[in-house]
Amino acid sequence: MLGLTTSLVLIASMLELSVHAATVLHQHQKRAQCAATLTIAENVASTLQAHYYNTGTGMYNGGSLWTDANALEDLHNLMLGADVDTWSTVADGSYIGKSALSSSTDWASLLGGANDDAGWVVMALWKMADYKSARGLSNTAYLNAAATIYNLIAGQWDDTCGGGVWWNTAHTYKNAITNQLFLYVSADGYLRGGGQTYLDNANKAWNWLSASGMRNSQGLWNDGLTDTCVNNGQTTWTYNQGVIASGLAALYAATQDTTLLDQAEITLDATISLLTDDDILKESCDDALSGGSVCDVNQQLFKGLWTKHVQYYLDMANDSTRTAKYSPFLGSQTSAVFHYGTDANNDVGSVWYAPNQGGSIFTPKTSTSGLEAHVAAAKYGPC
Ligand SMILES: *[C@@H]1O[C@H](CO)[C@@H](O)[C@H](O)[C@H]1NC(C)=O
């Protein structure tokens, strides 16, 4: 048995190590940004807030909890990137921020059983916390709320289909996005000093995902599993192809296992070759022509999420060769969003791959999605 002093020294040095890892990682996410792209992003963000944000409720008109969470995350991601404070009051006034600041919030009930929404809310709370920390403000309530929600998600893991967290607390479906988000928040939570349980969960999540059969022979992730635990063959949404990459890169940052980055790029490269039209992301529900298919209230945000999670992928990979590989594609997306997707008011519509011929729709989700493409490209695209 170790002496008390030795143990204390050991514990202290372990603490220092994990604090160091977190600090280094969240510092190196800083990077010179493209000013022109940032200006475009700020214009889109201003319109998003002016057209859709309700300061009374702290929600977006026509939004939903998980899409609002992403919009909040993006505003703070942008403020950190551009080094501005334009939306500094939004966090504490938002429904999610107010819920974090209130000690009486019942997160399980607020989340309504949606374990995927819970993952998005954790990410939003962390980004708002990063912003507060960068400005010397207390972020304790945000971090505590994120930890509470994380534990709710982690408690939704069981042995059905050999593992995985359920999509919903009703336990009807095991799917890709919920577990990809669990991988990300577990690995990033570890890097933020959450401790060994987070790393164990990240490894557990990836081991299960990689054996689940949800990634098809093309390298793309389908939506989820059937009742008999095989790939259900449902749509390969763009966001699934991005969130897996950021999660794997966060796990790489925690473990230094570069094969995780190679796994991520199988899927990123498949996205670029298979889920695009002339090098621009195209969701299967996108149609520039009127009268065709239209993405639903959730699907409207997916493409931007892919770009945001490529940003996070590159943050965590911290590798100039990998950055150079994806930079031109991020540049093409911001350009398409600007030239094809954006109307005269700086609202961004659902369709990026072609000029709008009546089929593009304009909602807070589609503007948020466009904002994400700009913010990612400001950091990693060409300038
Ligand atoms: C990122 O890469 C640079 C250059 O290779 C290196 O100096 C730095 O320590 C890396 N940061 C982290 C957090 O690994």
Automatic annotation (TrEMBL):
<keyword id="KW-0378">Hydrolase</keyword>
<feature type="signal peptide">
    <location>
        <begin position="1"/>
        <end position="21"/>
    </location>
</feature>
<protein>
    <submittedName>
        <fullName>Glycoside hydrolase family 76 protein</fullName>
    </submittedName>
</protein>
<keyword id="KW-0732">Signal</keyword>
<dbReference type="GO" id="GO:0005975">
    <property type="term" value="P:carbohydrate metabolic process"/>
</dbReference>
<dbReference type="InterPro" id="IPR053169">
    <property type="entry name" value="MUG_Protein"/>
</dbReference>
<dbReference type="InterPro" id="IPR008928">
    <property type="entry name" value="6-hairpin_glycosidase_sf"/>
</dbReference>
<dbReference type="InterPro" id="IPR005198">
    <property type="entry name" value="Glyco_hydro_76"/>
</dbReference>
<dbReference type="Pfam" id="PF03663">
    <property type="entry name" value="Glyco_hydro_76"/>
</dbReference>
<dbReference type="GO" id="GO:0016787">
    <property type="term" value="F:hydrolase activity"/>
</dbReference>
